[in-house]
C-alpha cells in the first residue's frame, strides 16, 4: 500500500462551524423557491440540515425538485444559487468560528510539513474561502489547494458524487490511496470513499452524545475507516489508517 502524503479536509463543520449558520440563511432562499411554486411546506435551518447536510445548494435544489415535483428553469436555478451564496457568505463572514481544537492540529501539521494539506468541499469556493479567512485558516490553505464541487469543476456537482475528490487528486498530482479525507457527513464520506480515499469520520460538530454516536455509526456504514469525536484524536486516527496501509 502507498504511503499517505496528503490530507484532504471537508470545510463545513469539519474545519469551520458553519452549517448551523449557513442553513439558517439557506432556509430563507429554499422557502422562497417553495413559495414561488405554491408549495405550502417551509423549512427551518435545522430541518434542512437533517435532510440535506453535506449537499451544496445546487444539489439541494435538485433534491427539492424531486421531492416536490418542481420544474426550475436553468436561469432561475442560477439566480437562486447566487442569492443563497451571497446570503450565506454574509452570515459566515460575520459569525463563523473554527471547530473545537482544530487550529492547534493544523498548526502542528503545517509546522511538520510531512503532509500536504487541501480543502475539498461541496460548497462554492467563494463561501469556503470566506469561512477560512474569517477563522484565520486561510494561512494553511492557499487558493490553489481549495477545491469546490460547486465551482472548481467544469460541470458543477455535489457530494456524494466523487468527482471533486478525483479532481483534487489530479490537481494535487497524487493518487486517492495516498490521501486521507476527513468528513463529517454521509454525503461527504460517500464521495471520498467512492473516490478510493481512506476516510476519517468526524462527529464533533454534532450536538450531544446521542447524535454523535448515531452519526458515527452512519459514517462507518458509508465506509469511513474510523470515527473522531474531537480533533485531539486526529493523530491516533490517522495512525490507524497509516498502519493499516502498511500491513
TrEMBL record:
Q: Would the keyword Metal-binding turn up in this protein's UniProt record? A: yes
Q: Which InterPro entries match?
A: Beta-PGM-like (IPR051600), HAD-like_sf (IPR036412), HAD-SF_hydro_IA (IPR006439), HAD_sf (IPR023214), PGP-like_dom2 (IPR023198)
A GO molecular function assigned to this protein is: phosphatase activity
CDD domains given in the database record = HAD_BPGM-like
Query: Does Nucleotide-binding count among this protein's keywords?
Result: no
Identify the cofactor(s): Mg(2+)
Q: Mind listing the UniProt keywords for this protein, alphabetically?
A: Carbohydrate metabolism, Magnesium, Metal-binding
Q: Which PANTHER family match?
A: 6-PHOSPHOGLUCONATE PHOSPHATASE (PTHR46193), HEXITOL PHOSPHATASE B (PTHR46193:SF18)
From the Swiss-Prot or TrEMBL record, give the protein name: Similar to Phosphorylated carbohydrates phosphatase TM_1254 acc. no. Q9X0Y1
Source taxonomy lineage? Eukaryota, Fungi, Dikarya, Ascomycota, Pezizomycotina
Amino acid at each position: 500500500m502507498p504511503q499517505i502524503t496528503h490530507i484532504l479536509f471537508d470545510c463545513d463543520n469539519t474545519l469551520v462551524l458553519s452549517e448551523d449558520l449557513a442553513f439558517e440563511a439557506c432556509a430563507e432562499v429554499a422557502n422562497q423557491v417553495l413559495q414561488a411554486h405554491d408549495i405550502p411546506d417551509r423549512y427551518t435551518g435545522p430541518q434542512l440540515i437533517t435532510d440535506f447536510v453535506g449537499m451544496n445548494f445546487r444539489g439541494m435544489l435538485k433534491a427539492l425538485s424531486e421531492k416536490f415535483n418542481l420544474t426550475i428553469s436553468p436561469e432561475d436555478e442560477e439566480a437562486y444559487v447566487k442569492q443563497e451564496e451571497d446570503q450565506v457568505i454574509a452570515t459566515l463572514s460575520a459569525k463563523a468560528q473554527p471547530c473545537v481544537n482544530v487550529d492547534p492540529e493544523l498548526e502542528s501539521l503545517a509546522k511538520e510539513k510531512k503532509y500536504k494539506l487541501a480543502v475539498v468541499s461541496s460548497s462554492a469556493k467563494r463561501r469556503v474561502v470566506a469561512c477560512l479567512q474569517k477563522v484565520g485558516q486561510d494561512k494553511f490553505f492557499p487558493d490553489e489547494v481549495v477545491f469546490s464541487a460547486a465551482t472548481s469543476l467544469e460541470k458543477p456537482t455535489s457530494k456524494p458524487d466523487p468527482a471533486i475528490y478525483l479532481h483534487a487528486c489530479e490537481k494535487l498530482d497524487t493518487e486517492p490511496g495516498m490521501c486521507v479525507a476527513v468528513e463529517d457527513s454521509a454525503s461527504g464520506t460517500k464521495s471520498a470513499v467512492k473516490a478510493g480515499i481512506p476516510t476519517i469520520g468526524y462527529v464533533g460538530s454534532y450536538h450531544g452524545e446521542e447524535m454523535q454516536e448515531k452519526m458515527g455509526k452512519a459514517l462507518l456504514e458509508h465506509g469511513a475507516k474510523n470515527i473522531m469525536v474531537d480533533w485531539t484524536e486526529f493523530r491516533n486516527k490517522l495512525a490507524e489508517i497509516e498502519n493499516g496501509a502498511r500491513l
